[in-house]
């Protein structure tokens, strides 16, 4: 804590992981002897940089850019870029640290990284987004590459932003290194099903967990927070599996309709028209809009899929979800539940799918995009979706198996951390003290 002052989110992520590794370390003292924890918690490097740009009023703006290259034991650094005013070193480090184990769980050869900026894309014109992303890439390009570090999207970074950054990277570097970024448009090296991957993958994972416990999406009531990339496709897949999605949100408030939301409308409003979720009720007067996004957890449901942001479910919201009869939680967002909230779910027998396992589908398909770029091939939607489904099933199975191995049957937090950690730790030992 004294080495990383004021980095609350980073401390929280490290505590969650290290606490659950106690049984692993007891069985494998070599990890302590080799200083794995001390080495793993220190990023290989953290890059911060100035991002100057000129807005539409000809005024100079300055933002801060970040890239953390956390751990390359398994392969090139891989992890998204987040553009949101709350971004700081703590947020980037918590995301990067989680990413190490998440990427290990996918079984693909990718290390952990993350990046972003405190730039706020909301309300900016297309040209402003372009000027900002070009300036951002003009510094970032020095540190990334298809075999070194491969960024993707995250909050505030979608296909538009990736497209502008890819254009600028090529302009500076020359050539056409398609594998330098993932989440690209389909017409220029992107993978089919990447857009859907995190949301679909989260539902595939939760579906496995439900089936294992004689439950199912069919006929269940689902609440999904957020209305961005992860949220939209989690809603779509949950509905496809027979659930009724009764509520979703944005950072201002939430919408509720007990008969089920029209996801096409949500997608058009948020992705195409870039409007607010409250505009939904203009087209669907039966639905209710409530100001304040945190109150979405007051809506009774069988399954809750937090897909917006970190720490969106605190102790109080968790207790309320339990009181209202929630049976399962699937974390689509990164670290959406506080440590106290997780404790409440586990104590009350709520099935809990932790983020680093449940939302690994996005990065897994990103790695498939890298593979397609290297082979100069593209697979069909069905092919990628089938691979995603297999990967999520395998992740679920390895979490269950690792939890059992260490005496924590059914505890997927321990299972995910133990399974991911062991892969990275073994690779670090094999590669010496570096
Ligand atoms: P988007 O930017 O597409 O959507 C984010 C959604 O969450 C929006 O509805 C946004 O509302 C809401 N939101 C953002 N910040 C806050 C906040 N501070 N409080 C309340 N609501 C907020 O991002 P993604 O869907 O890509 O990402 C969502 C989560 O999933 C993040 O935790 C991300 O790290 C994680 N994730 C994403 C992956 C991906 O492939 N995209 C992969 C793995 C994890 P508003 O529009 O009002 O800002």
From TrEMBL:
CDD domains: NAD_bind_2_Glu_DH. Gene3D superfamilies: Glutamate Dehydrogenase, chain A, domain 3, Leucine Dehydrogenase, chain A, domain 1, NAD(P)-binding Rossmann-like Domain. Coiled coil: none annotated. InterPro entries: Aminoacid_DH-like_N_sf (IPR046346), Glu/Leu/Phe/Val/Trp_DH (IPR006095), Glu/Leu/Phe/Val/Trp_DH_C (IPR006096), Glu/Leu/Phe/Val/Trp_DH_dimer (IPR006097), Glu_DH (IPR014362), Glu_Leu_Phe_Val_DH (IPR050724), NAD(P)-bd_dom_sf (IPR036291), NAD_bind_Glu_DH (IPR033922). Residues 191-432 form the Glutamate/phenylalanine/leucine/valine/L-tryptophan dehydrogenase C-terminal domain. SMART domains: ELFV_dehydrog (SM00839). Keywords: Oxidoreductase. PANTHER family: NADP-SPECIFIC GLUTAMATE DEHYDROGENASE 1-RELATED. Homohexamer. Belongs to the Glu/Leu/Phe/Val dehydrogenases family. NCBIfam families: PRK09414.1. This is Glutamate dehydrogenase. It comes from Paenibacillus cineris.
């Amino acid at each position: 804590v004294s080495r990383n002052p004021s980095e609350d989110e980073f401390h929280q992520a490290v505590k969650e992981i290290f606490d659950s590794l106690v049984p692993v370390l007891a069985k494998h003292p070599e990890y302590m002897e080799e200083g794995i924890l001390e080495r793993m918690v220190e990023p290989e490097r953290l890059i911060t940089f100035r991002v100057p740009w000129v807005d539409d009023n000809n005024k100079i703006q300055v933002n801060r850019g970040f890239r953390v290259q956390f751990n390359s034991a398994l392969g090139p650094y891989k992890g998204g870029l987040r553009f949101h005013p709350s971004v700081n070193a703590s947020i980037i480090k918590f995301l990067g640290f989680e990413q190490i184990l998440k990427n290990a769980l996918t079984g693909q050869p990718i290390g952990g990284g993350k990046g972003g900026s405190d730039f706020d894309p909301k309300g900016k014109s297309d040209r402003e987004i372009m000027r900002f992303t070009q300036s951002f890439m003009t510094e970032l390009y020095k540190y990334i590459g298809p075999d070194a570090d491969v960024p993707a999207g995250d909050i505030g970074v979608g296909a538009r932003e990736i497209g502008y950054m890819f254009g600028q990277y090529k302009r500076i570097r020359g050539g056409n290194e398609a594998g330098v970024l993932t989440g690209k448009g389909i017409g220029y090296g992107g993978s089919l099903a990447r857009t859907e991957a995190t949301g679909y993958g989260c539902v595939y994972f939760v579906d496995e967990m439900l089936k294992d416990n004689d439950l199912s999406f069919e006929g269940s009531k689902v609440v999904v927070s957020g209305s961005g990339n992860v949220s939209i496709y989690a809603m779509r897949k949950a509905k496809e599996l027979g659930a009724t999605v009764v509520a979703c949100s944005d950072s201002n408030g939430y919408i509720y309709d007990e008969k089920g939301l029209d996801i096409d409308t949500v997608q058009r409003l948020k992705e195409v028209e870039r409007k607010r979720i409250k505009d939904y009720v203009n087209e669907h007067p039966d639905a209710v809009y409530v100001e304040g996004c945190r109150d979405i957890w007051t809506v009774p449901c069988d399954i809750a899929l937090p897909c917006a942001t970190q720490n969106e479910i605190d102790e109080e919201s968790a207790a309320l979800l339990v009181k209202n009869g929630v049976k399962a939680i699937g974390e689509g967002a990164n670290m959406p539940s506080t440590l106290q909230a997780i404790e409440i779910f586990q104590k009350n027998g709520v099935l809990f799918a932790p983020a680093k396992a449940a939302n690994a589908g996005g990065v897994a398909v990103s790695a498939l995009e890298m593979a397609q770029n290297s082979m100069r091939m593209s697979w069909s939607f069905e092919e990628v979706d089938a691979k995603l489904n297999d990967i999520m099933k395998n992740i679920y199975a390895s979490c269950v198996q690792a939890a059992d191995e260490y005496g924590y049957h059914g505890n997927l937090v321990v299972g995910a951390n133990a399974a991911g950690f062991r892969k990275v730790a073994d690779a670090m030992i094999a590669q010496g003290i570096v």
